[in-house]
Design brief:
Residues 38-339 form the Glycosyl hydrolase family 32 N-terminal domain. One of its GO terms (molecular function) is beta-fructofuranosidase activity. Its EC number is 3.2.1.26. Pathway: Glycan biosynthesis; sucrose metabolism. The structure is a single chain. The protein has helices spanning 6-9, 18-29; strands at 44-55, 58-66, 76-82, 89-95, 106-114, 117-127, 133-142, 148-157, 163-175, 178-187, 192-199, 206-210, 221-230, 233-241, 257-261, 264-265, 270-271, 277-278, 286-292, 298-303, 318-319, 326-331, 334-339, 347-358, 361-364, 372-380, 389-395, 403-408, 413-417, 432-436, 442-450, 453-458, 463-468, 477-482, 486-495. 44% of the residues are buried. The chain has 496 residues and is mostly beta strands. It has 2 domains: 6-339, Tachylectin-2, Chain A, CATH 2.115.10.20; 343-495, Jelly Rolls (Sandwich), CATH 2.60.120.560. It is built from 2 helices and 35 strands. 3% of the residues lie in helices and 51% in strands. The strands form 8 sheets. A 6-stranded antiparallel sheet has the order 24-35-26-31-32-33, with no helix packed on it. It has a 6-stranded antiparallel sheet with strand order 25-34-27-28-29-30, with no helix packed on it. Strands 4-3-2-1-21 form a 5-stranded mixed sheet, with no helix packed on it. It binds beta-D-fructofuranose. Residues 47-48, 64, 75, 107-108, 123, 168-169, 223-224, 287, 307 line the site of beta-D-fructofuranose. The site of beta-D-fructofuranose has 13 residues, from strand 1, strand 5, strand 9 and strand 13.
């Protein structure tokens, strides 16, 4: 694997010729792991979704991008637009680290509409000669030609007293004519928190204080905060770093989760809630961002990857993708995620529709690409002694290779296992993940499989598992196995 020197990681895009970038893109396009319907970089590394906004009849979505290889180097924003959340048009690189206030990276941030124009606020990352970090929060405006005007000096320069240089990822919204921003931060005692700012004009910002989420010592840094309302309740979503595994929870290197409060008063900045809940139970999910759709839906997307984890495509000079867009709702004190309804447009043809009673293993041969949506409904029959049911995806001819989903009705748990799936990676963080579900008389799974990812929605979004997988040629079959009798229905659509 290539070792990147600091000098190489901080070289500018303009230091590379167009020919060089074209050759790199051609090489990346040969990768057997390129996705069919997920947002992915043409070269280099993608991480957080940024600036997700509906503006002027279109969705705007950006991502953190290091163009030259699969390493966290000098970050840019890459811009995409869509009218339907399904087909995305690449608009190209939108923000370059080209000023003294963002010289070492245009880090994460969000979008908002002001005076009929799309604005963004992001973190300009600076390193001094001594390599000390300086975080700047910068506002920029998109002009009619798609270019951005940065308002400098920064809206918020450096870190406020009491906080380290880890202050980043502003999420802005407007409420009753006032702009608010939540920003991820680290206190000087090295615990994570969120700062809240307000502004009348989105240019001059005043620190209101810390958001009191009642979690005073919960990891060393909170990244990518987001604060929004659903059904009159306030949701605070963020990515805390430094939590230890606890039972089935927190097994990834870093987490993403939320708290839900009945009330959030701007004078107190206090959120009273029933506890932090992890948002996704899969292997690869981090740095979420949400946006509101014109019809009032709260739509979420996330980085389908994690910091400090090596992935099989790193050697191919590209890495990562975004998750599918998901609609959020609150049900019984939990955030529910469902794939946005627009995604039915991806269905090309229904390739399987099977149903009936099953008390053994049934294999479904498939030879096409791993690019499909699968729905499985399982009902455990009341009289039977309930044994676990397994669904294997990305299976080879001998069933030696597979991604296994196990429904265990007696434990009321669902487990995914990627230990035998394709190219192994990130095994230090474990090869299984488990989710407890409320009831297991019947289970419904909606699964989106792309060349190198599997997103599983359990019981209409009660839980999700989001994971990267790297199956090799021929690992495309499925099987369903029941140890006791089940009633099932399985539908599969090939996706465009
Ligand atoms: C999260 C993150 C953010 C930061 C960005 C830099 O993955 O570390 O906190 O702004 O990535 O790319």
């Amino acid at each position: 694997m290539k070792e990147w020197t600091r000098e190489e990681r901080y070289k500018k895009l303009s230091d590379y010729s167009d020919d060089y970038m074209e050759e790199l893109a051609k090489r990346v396009a040969q990768s057997p792991f390129r996705q069919h319907y997920h947002i992915q970089p043409n070269t280099g590394l993608l991480n957080d979704p940024n600036g997700f906004t509906y503006f002027d009849g279109k969705w705007h979505l950006f991502y953190q991008w290091f163009p030259m290889g699969a390493v966290h180097g000098l970050k840019h924003w890459f811009h995409l637009t869509s009218t339907d959340l399904v087909q995305w048009k690449e608009e190209g690189v939108a923000l370059l680290p080209d000023t003294e206030y963002d010289s070492h990276g245009v880090y994460s941030g969000s979008g908002f509409v002001k005076d009929g124009q799309l604005h963004i606020m992001y973190t300009g990352n600076v390193r001094t000669e001594e390599w000390e970090r300086v975080p700047n929060q910068i506002v920029a405006r998109m002009e009619a030609d798609g270019s951005f005007t940065k308002f400098l000096p920064p809206a918020i320069a450096g870190n406020p007293e009491g906080y380290t240089d880890h202050v980043r990822d502003p999420k802005v919204w407007e409420q009753h004519g006032i702009y608010y921003a939540v920003i991820g931060a680290q206190r000087t005692d090295e615990t994570g928190t969120i700062l809240m700012y307000r502004s009348k004009d989105a240019l001059e910002w005043e620190l209101m204080g810390e958001v009191d989420a009642g979690l005073p010592d919960f990891g060393f840094m909170w990244e990518c905060p987001d604060l929004f309302e659903i059904d009159g309740k306030t949701v605070l979503l963020f990515s805390p770093q430094g939590l230890e595994p606890e039972g089935d929870r927190y097994h990834n290197i870093f987490q993403t989760g939320y708290v839900i409060a009945d009330d959030f008063r701007m004078d107190e900045l206090k959120l009273e809630h029933e506890g932090f809940q992890e948002l996704d139970a899969g292997f690869d999910f981090y740095a979420t961002q949400t946006a509101e759709s014109p019809d009032g839906r709260r739509i979420l997307t996330a980085w389908m990857g994690l910091p400090d984890v090596a992935y099989p495509t790193d050697s191919e000079d590209w890495a990562h993708c975004l998750t599918l867009p998901r609609e959020l709702a609150i049900k019984e004190g939990k955030l529910i995620q469902q794939p946005v309804r627009e995604l039915v447009a991806l269905r090309k043809k229904q390739a399987l529709s099977e149903s009936g009673l099953l008390s053994e293993a049934k294999r479904f041969e498939r030879s096409g690409a791993n690019c499909y949506e699968l729905q499985l409904d399982v009902t455990f029959l009341a009289s039977a002694d309930h044994a676990p049911v397994t669904l294997d995806l990305c299976e080879d001819a001998a069933n030696d290779k597979r991604f296994r989903i196990t429904l265990d009705p007696s434990a009321k748990k669902i487990t995914i296992d990627r230990s035998q799936c394709g190219i192994p990676f990130a095994e230090d963080f474990g090869t299984t993940r488990t989710l407890a579900v409320e009831q297991m008389d019947a289970v419904k799974l909606q699964i989106f499989v792309d060349t190198s990812s599997i997103e599983i929605f359990v019981n209409d979004g009660e839980g999700t598992f989001t994971s990267r997988v790297f199956p090799e040629a021929g690992e495309t079959c499925l099987s369903l196995a029941a140890g006791s009798t089940i009633d099932y229905r399985l539908d599969l659509w090939e996706l465009a």
